[in-house]
Design brief:
Strand order of the largest sheet: 1-2
Shape: elongated
Structural class: mainly alpha
Radius of gyration: 17 Å
CATH superfamily: Winged helix-like DNA-binding domain superfamily/Winged helix DNA-binding domain
Number of helices: 7
Number of strands: 2
Helix content: 40-55%
Order of helices and strands: HHHEEHHHH
Strand content: under 5%
Distance between the termini: 17 Å
């Protein structure tokens, strides 16, 4: 459903959020190792998230990535929007170009319900809540 950029971006931001709650800054190397993603690809995704003020990059020998306290309330929908736009909410479940209520594919009506549930989950889930789940060992980020 999500692009690879979005998958890695979500995993990276959630990991950074978890580390931020522990007052840790994390390097690109550690992030890419922890979320099992290529470092160069992770760097591009983090650059995009930094430009959109979701994560903060601190330069220097004691630098790294963090999420500012007020950004811990960021909803996953905002991250998905930055990385994938809104296509996840509008695209066809079978990837067809011509699929809508007037000309539905065989999955259209079922997929609309799934998309609505996904949107609801993304709009109601914050980085803070996921960081807390990770800190309580209720979630994992590696495959």
């Amino acid at each position: 459903m999500f692009s690879k950029s979005c998958e890695y971006g979500l995993r990276a931001v959630i990991f950074i959020a978890q580390q931020t709650t522990k007052n840790n800054k994390v390097s690109l190397t550690i992030i890419s190792e922890e979320i099992d993603s290529p470092q160069a690809f992770t760097a591009k995704v983090l650059q995009q998230l930094t430009r959109n003020n979701i994560v903060k990059s601190i330069k220097g020998p004691y630098g790294g990535f963090v999420i500012e306290e007020e950004k811990m309330n960021t909803k996953l929908s905002e991250i998905v929007s930055v990385l994938d736009g809104d296509s996840i909410y509008t695209g066809c479940g079978l990837g067809l170009k011509q699929c809508d209520a007037k000309s539905p594919c065989p999955l259209h009506h079922r997929f609309v319900a799934i998309r609505n549930d996904l949107r609801s989950m993304l709009e109601s889930t914050s980085l803070q809540s996921l960081a807390e789940d990770l800190n309580a060992d209720l979630a994992i980020l590696k495959r």
